[in-house]
Design goal:
By secondary structure, the protein is of the alpha/beta class. Helix content is about 35%, strand content about 25%. Strand 15, helix 11 and strand 16 form a beta-alpha-beta unit. The chain binds ligand BES and zinc ion (2 copies).
């Protein structure tokens, strides 16, 4: 997609994003009323101007004093898809009314249009006919540099999010631990992100015991993928950790639902971390960050991890595997220990960890646990970028639910309740001394069944923009 900032456009398809107040003013002489500016209102019509018949797509943003960047992203997503349905690949965007900075406006336009018109049609024999090719961002005369900066940021954030969507949407016969690692290596070749992949004997040497145990039932052996971006080595190191289960069948504790195709996305946390590093590198942010992705395929078989077996972790903790379907926490534990060994001061993990978290918060919001300041900052940033998170408590009293008869801890809890919390409590045991930690459970928002706003049915790319912004803004980074 090509972006241009212009005062006048030569394109004949106009996307007008406007507040209720701006709609009343009937901009461009369009036949509009206040209601056209209502939030989520979308109107598309042909209109004659200066002898030409043009397509006008008008999307409401709501009252001026309530407009947030999220409204703009959503409206752009809807308007962009409407333009494509009309076969328009070149569009002009006009934003009228909201009191947001030029940079925020430009960034939101780009994110909304790119993410809202995203398609994953690699495996469709009939490809989507149209895609947005050229966008004119129409702005008043004056300083264009904030718009330019906003577009650059939007392009980076959208590209990282599309990368995460592509990875999560990819079926598990194509995306395995080894091919995911290859993909990451190829993707970051020639960028400031260096990639190290550990497998086979490395895992033994590094004592990544959870990863070995979870991965041993699969034909495709596990990997630990380490990405490094050190543009400011003097700054405290942040570790981003993403669960990379390329398929979660449950293992010996096999899942029994009718359709478990979605478990190809059990690496959506990994995708979020990879996407965030992509954004950070594109923008050349002055930060110090590593991404850790433990990648495995959870399969039943003659060599599988068995219920009842015990894993002895590098930090001395022993874990009774009570249920092989609670595998995510087992591999994240290794990554948390490794983050400490790498010298991280702050660690944020993101994972499609529990159905319980999805049950609690639904499909739009992830749960966040851990350090108060971290969870608070993540919530604030999430509200701004649209990757919403909600703080859930680490209830010490529930530790007893993880008690094991013959190991230090079990990987599932007694009883049906509080599953998202007990999973987080399990992870807390592996957070190295002195590391400030937060855990994001994104089982709910990993995918969406309906296309709306800038979310398109399929993987959402949740977490990319949240983590990228977090690394950028976290004090000390
Ligand atoms: N990957 C799943 C969690 C999940 C469920 C993610 C639905 C996205 C959508 C995880 O590995 C899992 O199987 N969790 C179990 C844990 C249980 C065995 C304690 C769950 O949530 O049922
Ligand atoms: Zn599982
Ligand atoms: Zn899983």
């Amino acid at each position: 997609m090509e972006w241009e900032i212009v005062a006048e456009t030569r394109f004949s398809c106009h996307l007008v994003l406007l507040t209720s107040e701006a709609a009343k003013e009937r901009p461009f002489g369009l036949p509009l009323e206040e209601r056209h500016g209502k939030k989520e209102e979308l109107t598309s019509f042909l209109f004659e101007r200066g002898g030409d018949i043009e397509r006008w797509i008008v999307a409401g943003l709501g009252p001026q004093d309530q407009v947030r960047s999220e409204h703009l992203r959503r409206a752009c997503g809807e308007a962009g898809r409407t333009a494509l349905k009309d076969g328009r690949e070149e569009v002009a965007v006009h934003v009228l009314g909201p009191s947001l900075s030029p940079e925020t406006i430009a960034q939101s336009i780009v994110e909304g249009l790119v993410l809202g018109t995203y398609v994953f049609d690699r495996y469709k024999s009939k490809k989507h006919e149209y895609r947005l090719k050229r966008v004119d961002v129409v702005v008043p005369e004056g300083d264009r540099s904030p718009y330019r900066a906003g577009i650059e940021r939007g392009v980076a954030h959208a590209a990282g999010t599309c990368l995460a969507r592509d990875l999560a949407n990819e079926p598990s016969n194509r995306l395995r631990p080894d091919t995911l690692a290859d993909h990451v290596q190829r993707h970051f070749a020639g960028t400031p992100v260096s990639v190290e992949v550990y497998g086979g004997a490395d895992l033994e040497r590094m004592r990544l015991r959870g990863l070995q145990a979870v991965g041993k039932g699969s034909l495709y052996s596990p990997r630990m993928i380490e990405m490094r971006y050190q543009a400011a080595p003097e700054k405290p190191l942040i570790a981003l950790i993403g669960k990379g289960m390329t398929f979660d069948s449950g293992g010996i504790s096999l899942k029994t639902q009718r359709d478990i195709s979605d478990m190809r996305m059990d690496m959506a946390g990994a995708a979020a971390v990879i996407g965030a590093l992509d954004v950070i590198a594109r923008l050349g942010l002055p930060v110090n960050v590593i991404g850790l992705v433990p990648a495995a395929e959870n399969m039943p078989g003659g060599h599988s991890m068995l219920p009842g077996e015990i894993i002895e972790y590098a930090n001395g903790t022993t874990v009774q595997v009570a249920n092989t379907d609670a595998e995510g926490r087992l591999i994240l534990a290794d990554a948390l220990i490794l983050a400490g060994q790498r010298g991280a001061q702050t660690a944020v993990d993101i994972a499609t960890l529990t159905g319980a978290c999805a049950a609690a918060l639904g499909g739009k919001v992830a749960g966040v646990f851990g350090d108060d300041r971290l969870t608070h900052v993540l919530k604030e940033i999430g509200d701004e970028v649209g990757d919403r998170v909600w703080p859930l408590p680490l209830v010490d009293d529930y530790e007893t639910m993880l008690k094991s008869e013959y190991a230090d801890v079990k990987n599932i809890s007694e009883g049906p309740y509080g599953g998202a919390i007990t999973a987080a409590l399990f992870l807390r045991r592996f957070v190295p001394e002195g590391v400030r930690w937060a855990h994001i459970d994104m089982a709910g928002p990993m995918d969406t069944s309906s296309t709306k706003g800038y979310w398109v049915a399929g993987a959402t790319g949740f977490g990319v923009r949240l983590l990228a912004r977090f690394v950028e803004e976290w004090p000390g980074s």
